[in-house]
Recover the amino acids of this structure.
């Protein structure tokens, strides 16, 4: 009996293959987008943890120099005083034409040597420690570098984080050309007793406490939260499709359920079979979704890792590793989604009367809450979001606000449309017009879910599109301001730097030294720049808050500029005071925007910098020169000082590079956005298709009352278009609100900068047109059947209840 | 892996050929390195300093001490040098590597520490005159122009520290043939001399105690490039000071085929005599379970040529140096035909 | 559940004093009021009455589709009051078959599958009987079609075939020809009576047509919930 009953239930899909495909595809898409995001996040997090472990930087304090470089003798001095410290020399260099981060450590003292595992043990100690030495890199990094021969042999080491080349410090100082220099000293765990105070041994070094949380993880958390939010949104949109189709499949099979029960299939068995069917479909869809998710993640991961490396310097390998927890969570979401979507159908089954009373029929079985309740619920969700955001605060609070707003708005959509339709009906004259609006209103409950999905997808699209475009516009403008000099030069040494400066003074309009020290502000490593007093800054520097005499204050050494990230994080604004060193506390006189940099930054007058920090490098310069002479000057500069091409870069090249990093940052956001809209479009199309197919019984009486079928068809199309257009109109303000939250709340929390909102009405127009087109297509396909149906088909409506 | 590197580099210092053989080009042959030569005349103070052209070298000081209440203590201070290539160098590029071991042992405690350093940057090294050997803040420093006669010794670990003053007025003892000490029947050898007769006084800092101590100290200097033959698995090395005023250095190199023993008998007046393979007979009497291995902590030593027949017992059987390359090193007491105290080092018990 | 004591003496179906009320307490509307009847194996019985006289309700009670308030209904040895959903389902699956006015075919099954489905659920598939039924009902050429492509008369013939394929002891029919024109109605009726006899089933048929009722062994008239 069970087998026969199951076969009968499944026979439904044989007759409704499109519905089956919709259901599986909808759930697969939802699961796929969700698991893609999970795979990306999982990969990135695993990479951070691995990297932190391999680099041995976790939980240990470090010593840094305000000048950015620690002389070797400080290390020896500390050691001779008993302090157990381990040196790290880190720098960027070109290997085989590609830039890599070289991390040189003393293999005798570095706290973590897991990167040098037994699989690399066939490299002998003297090969590592004596020239030419060995470089250790992840196979993927080596593959990126290509086969260009390097003077130092490269050894495959799977435990080295991607994008980083590990080596002994002796080799590092040679290939980085930084003899006797150290970037930082790691203070080791085990120290001898009776040590002298650090400040007595190395007064010029600053101790940086171990960060409570791994820095990279903290910096990138926001980025991953962003992705997760997108994954959830995509999943929710996918659920709308699934809910619709499952509801429809239950509704269409109600006569079958009755027949089966009349033929002696017990209700309990029927319920179990339907549950099993639901779970079976979820498993199939979930599996398809996992494959989809893997493909999407594999396609996006290179961009994600590029973003993470470019923006945060976080080491993420481009290869995707599958984790069991990922399978489980993906399938779990699919099952959960199917159960949520099917719960109502199953519940209805229990209330399904065995005997059908004629005329008892509801739309799709998707009986929603009554309108007033939906309106109240919507308002409550929005209030709860606001309240939650205020109570939780931070990035998570921002997302709570977002979630409340979006669900609330979705709930408010049907009541709002009801009110709008009531107005329209009152305005309409004539029987047909009144029937049209009234009929539309009566169908609203059945259409609500599809249009709620559309509203969410549209407003997300508008919101995210607005954010990215606003950001881009602002960023490009900011680059123009920030990169005001025409040429940027990096000399090899301080001595050469001075020579370059002298030479340039005679050959250009102005030389702006770019000099900085690595300091610590409020316990966070902060780069402190010293700038000369020059009109270039006054004209171009992208200040967002400033006192009127800002540049004068900087020049006379009584003020400091800080970047927006630092200002927002530390709540420091013009008028506040900031401690740069124990001896140097100064007024904040301005805040400048500083996109693409996750860390804090300070600008003070150059004389102030030099008198407060030792050993400030003097190697980088911005050069003002008429545009058309820039290239020629760059060439002469390279020849004069035998500088490599990369040491003299013109503004355009840097801008292009920065923009590339920017584009990478948002390529994932944009891709997920497009995918989400795609899923939503699919939802609206399938919902309308099934709904309008079921509309035949509603239309037939009107036909019988004397409307031509052609007229009916146009009314159907008009109906679909009207609803879509109203939804688009409502989605625009919602999208703008979303954009505002993204720019003013989420971005500030995630990246530390706030961006002005720009609107792009042309984009809305395009999106609106596209949506209406989808609605027209979705209405025409079933309506054409109406046109083609023989009168007997329409007549059947009156004789055949099924 | 650092453990591996260090273990390999310093394995030779601590008598393990097997660990060194794991690495192909750190074999037992001393390619490019100087090899100890018979008839070499040691020159002081120059030979107190480092010999970078030899692969391995050490400055090895042990002292048997007692506190105000008569409580016995032992102190170890060792600086090992291991060369990747037979030359010196400056900066990180130097092929010279250094390792320090320090320990304080009582009947109930054995505290130790290890230090590693690269040569060429000043973190560790040895100068001959005025004499100074150091790694990090551990130092063994001589007075101007006094060679090794007067030394100040310091070391500290996370749980101990000591500051000692060592004075000797006896001559240096050259082992083997004028300091050419043969280590196997196959002819492996090292340059080896000692100052066995220091009077020691100073302070041990243990926990929050400051313990004034006095006693005797013994410094060994040895360098080589190929100290062991391939079949030798480890050694048992004794430095004993008898109440009679005489002293004895003796060791047994354990071979697969046959053991190889060597001894130097030092008269109270400082004159010494090296005794050939077989003159010294050592036999373990009792074992203790230490760090998961069976370690002989009670011995019988016989040197018939000097009417010596003694039992040597460890003060603390758990004197296990659980350093990168682990071994046993600790103070011992002597009973039998002679009485006294000394130090015992045992390597190669895996 | 079924015993074999049913024969000419022991009725297959016994309805005694059955009452049924619809609606909430307070404004009760009695549909059946003390109805009693007997039906023997192989016998055909027509139940006539005006619309709303309660004849369909009685049929549903006998088919274990609905509950009654008082009285007793026995099908063979089984007392229908107090059965669980599971027992009722078993009864419907193996003892009773039904033909409705709206045919109630399963839309996603072909004619062939619809014909077999009840017999297979009952675990009582008889291939040669099925072939004979198909031929007699004139469905041989329609086996691969789906119900939506059949005329009303064809659909009802499929419904009759489905019901009789499992050789029920009792066939319940509720206005089986109510949706058919006069010509096909007569044809379908003749076929049904003939096949019921072949199957050896008893027939309990609800109709408002005297012409149809006259074709059956006995008839009862229901008026205002009473057997008249």
């Amino acid at each position: 009996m069970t087998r026969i009953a199951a076969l009968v239930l499944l026979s439904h899909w044989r007759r409704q293959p499109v519905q089956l495909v919709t259901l599986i595809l909808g759930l697969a898409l939802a699961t796929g987008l969700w698991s893609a995001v999970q795979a990306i996040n999982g990969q990135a997090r695993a990479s951070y943890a691995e990297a932190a472990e391999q680099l041995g930087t976790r939980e240990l304090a470090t010593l840094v120099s305000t000048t950015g470089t620690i002389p070797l003798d400080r290390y020896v001095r500390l050691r001779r005083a008993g302090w157990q410290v381990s040196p790290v020399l880190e720098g960027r260099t070109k290997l085989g034409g590609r830039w890599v981060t070289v991390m040189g450590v003393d293999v005798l003292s570095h706290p973590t040597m897991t990167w040098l595992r037994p699989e690399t043990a066939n490299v002998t100690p003297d090969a590592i420690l004596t020239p030419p030495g060995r470089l250790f890199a992840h196979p993927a990094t080596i593959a990126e570098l290509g086969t260009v021969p390097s003077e130092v042999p490269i050894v495959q080491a799977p435990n080295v984080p991607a994008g980083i080349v590990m080596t002994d410090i002796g080799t590092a100082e040679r290939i980085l050309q930084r003899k006797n220099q150290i970037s930082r000293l790691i203070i080791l765990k085990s120290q001898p007793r009776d040590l002298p105070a650090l400040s007595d041994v190395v007064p010029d070094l600053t101790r940086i406490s171990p960060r409570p949380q791994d820095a990279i993880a903290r910096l990138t958390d926001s980025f991953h939260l962003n992705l997760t939010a997108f994954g959830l949104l995509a999943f929710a949109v996918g659920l709308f499709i699934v809910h619709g189709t499952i509801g429809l499949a239950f509704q269409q099979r109600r006569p079958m359920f009755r027949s089966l029960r009349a033929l002696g299939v017990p209700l309990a068995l029927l319920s179990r079979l339907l549950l099993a069917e639901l779970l079976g479909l979820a498993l199939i869809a979930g599996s398809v979704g996992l494959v989809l998710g893997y493909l999407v993640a594999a396609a996006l991961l290179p961009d994600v890792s590029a973003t993470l490396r470019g923006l945060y310097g976080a080491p993420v390998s481009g290869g995707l590793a599958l984790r069991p927890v990922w399978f489980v969570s993906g399938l779990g979401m699919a099952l959960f989604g199917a159960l949520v979507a099917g719960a109502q159908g199953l519940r209805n089954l229990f209330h399904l009367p065995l005997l059908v009373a004629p005329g008892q029929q509801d739309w799709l079985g998707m009986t929603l809450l009554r309108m007033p309740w939906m309106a109240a619920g919507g308002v409550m969700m929005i209030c709860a979001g606001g309240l939650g955001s205020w109570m939780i605060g931070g990035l998570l609070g921002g997302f709570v606000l977002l979630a409340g707003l979006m669900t609330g708005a979705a709930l408010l959509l049907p009541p709002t449309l009801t009110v709008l339709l009531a107005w329209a009906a009152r305005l309409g004259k004539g029987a047909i017009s009144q029937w049209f609006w009234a009929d539309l209103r009566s169908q609203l409950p059945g259409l609500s879910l599809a249009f709620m999905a559309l509203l969410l997808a549209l407003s997300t699209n508008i919101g995210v599109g607005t954010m990215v475009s606003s950001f881009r516009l602002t960023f490009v403008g900011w680059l123009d301001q920030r990169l005001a000099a025409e040429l940027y030069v990096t000399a090899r040494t301080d001595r050469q730097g001075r020579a370059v400066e002298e030479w340039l003074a005679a050959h250009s309009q102005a030389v702006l030294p770019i000099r900085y020290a690595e300091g610590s502000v409020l316990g966070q490593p902060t780069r402190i720049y010293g700038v000369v007093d020059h009109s270039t800054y006054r004209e171009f520097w992208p200040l967002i808050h400033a006192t009127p005499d800002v540049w004068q204050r900087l020049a006379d050494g009584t003020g400091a500029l800080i970047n927006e990230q630092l200002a927002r994080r530390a709540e420091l604004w013009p008028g506040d005071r900031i401690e740069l060193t124990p001896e140097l506390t100064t007024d904040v006189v301005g805040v400048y925007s500083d996109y693409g940099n996750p860390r804090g930054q300070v600008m003070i007058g150059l004389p102030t910098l030099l008198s407060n920090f030792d050993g400030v490098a003097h190697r980088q310069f911005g050069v003002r020169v008429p545009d058309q002479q820039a290239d020629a000057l760059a060439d002469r500069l390279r020849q004069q000082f035998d500088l490599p091409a990369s040491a003299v870069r013109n503004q355009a090249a840097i801008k292009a590079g920065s923009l590339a990093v920017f584009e990478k940052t948002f390529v994932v956001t944009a891709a997920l956005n497009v995918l989400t809209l795609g899923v939503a479009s699919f939802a609206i199309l399938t919902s309308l298709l099934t709904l309008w197919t079921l509309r035949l019984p509603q239309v037939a009486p009107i036909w019988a009352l004397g409307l031509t079928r052609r007229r009916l068809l146009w009314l159907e199309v008009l109906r679909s278009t009207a609803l879509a257009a109203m939804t688009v109109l409502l989605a625009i303000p919602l999208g703008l609100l979303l954009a505002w939250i993204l720019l003013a709340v989420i971005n500030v929390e995630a990246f530390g900068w706030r961006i002005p909102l720009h609107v792009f009405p042309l984009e809305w127009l395009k999106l609106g047109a596209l949506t209406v087109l989808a609605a027209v297509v979705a209405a025409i396909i079933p309506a054409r059947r109406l046109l083609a149906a023989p009168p007997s088909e329409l007549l059947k409506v009156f004789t055949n209840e099924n | 892996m650092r453990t591996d590197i260090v273990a390999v580099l310093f394995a030779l210092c601590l008598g393990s050929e097997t660990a060194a053989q794991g690495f192909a080009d750190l074999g037992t042959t001393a390619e490019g390195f100087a090899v100890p030569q018979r008839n070499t005349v040691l020159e002081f103070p120059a030979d107190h300093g480092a010999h970078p052209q030899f692969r391995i070298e050490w400055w090895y000081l042990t002292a048997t001490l007692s506190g105000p209440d008569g409580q016995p203590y032992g102190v170890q201070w060792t600086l090992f040098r291991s060369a990747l290539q037979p030359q010196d160098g400056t900066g990180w590029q130097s092929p010279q590597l250094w390792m320090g071991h320090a320990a304080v042992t009582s009947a109930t405690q054995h505290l130790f520490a290890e230090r590693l350093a690269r040569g060429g940057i000043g973190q560790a090294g040895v100068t001959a005159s005025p004499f100074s050997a150091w790694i990090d803040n551990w130092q063994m420093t001589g007075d101007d122009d006094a060679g090794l006669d007067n030394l100040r010794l310091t070391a500290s670990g996370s749980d101990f520290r000591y500051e000692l003053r060592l004075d000797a007025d006896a001559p240096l003892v050259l082992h083997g043939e004028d300091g050419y000490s043969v280590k196997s029947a196959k002819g492996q050898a090292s340059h080896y001399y000692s100052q066995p007769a220091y009077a020691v006084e100073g302070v041990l800092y243990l926990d929050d105690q400051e313990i004034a101590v006095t006693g005797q100290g013994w410094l060994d200097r040895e360098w080589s490039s190929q100290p062991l033959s391939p079949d030798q698995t480890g050694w048992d090395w004794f430095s004993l000071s008898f109440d009679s005023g005489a002293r004895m250095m003796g060791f047994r190199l354990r071979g697969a085929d046959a053991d190889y023993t060597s001894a130097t008998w030092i008269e109270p007046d400082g004159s010494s005599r090296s005794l050939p393979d077989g003159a010294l007979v050592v036999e373990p009497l009792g074992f203790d379970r230490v760090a998961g291995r069976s370690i002989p902590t009670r011995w019988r030593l016989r040197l018939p040529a000097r009417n010596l027949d003694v039992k040597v017992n460890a003060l603390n059987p758990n004197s296990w140096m659980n350093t990168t390359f682990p071994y046993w090193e600790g103070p011992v007491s002597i009973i039998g035909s002679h009485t006294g105290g000394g130090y015992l080092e045992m390597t190669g018990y895996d | 559940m079924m015993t074999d004591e049913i024969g000419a003496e022991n009725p297959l179906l016994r309805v005694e004093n059955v009452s049924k009320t619809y609606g909430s307490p307070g404004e009760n509307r009695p549909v059946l009021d003390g109805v009693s009847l007997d039906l023997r194996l192989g016998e055909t019985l027509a139940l006539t009455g005006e619309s709303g006289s309660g004849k369909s309700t009685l049929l549903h009670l006998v088919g274990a589709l609905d509950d009654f308030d008082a009285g007793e209904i026995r099908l063979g040895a089984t007392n229908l009051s107090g059965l669980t959903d599971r027992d009722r389902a078993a009864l419907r699956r193996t003892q009773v078959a039904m033909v409705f006015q709206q045919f109630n075919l399963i839309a996603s099954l072909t004619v062939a599958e619809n014909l077999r489905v009840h017999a297979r659920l009952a675990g009582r598939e008889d291939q040669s009987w099925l072939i004979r039924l198909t031929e007699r009902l004139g469905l041989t050429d329609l086996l691969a079609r789906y119900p939506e492509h059949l005329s009303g008369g064809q659909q009802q013939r499929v419904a009759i075939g489905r019901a009789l394929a499992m050789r029920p002891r009792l066939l319940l029919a509720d206005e089986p020809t109510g949706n058919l024109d006069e010509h096909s109605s007569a044809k379908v009726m003749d076929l049904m009576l003939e096949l019921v006899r072949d199957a050896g089933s008893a027939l309990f048929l609800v109709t408002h047509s005297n012409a149809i009722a006259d074709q059956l062994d006995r008839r009862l008239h229901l008026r205002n919930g009473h057997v008249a």
Notes: DSSP finds two helices and 23 strands in chain B. Chains B and C do not touch (no CB pair under 8 Å). Chain B has one domain: 2-346. Chain B has a mean pLDDT of 89.
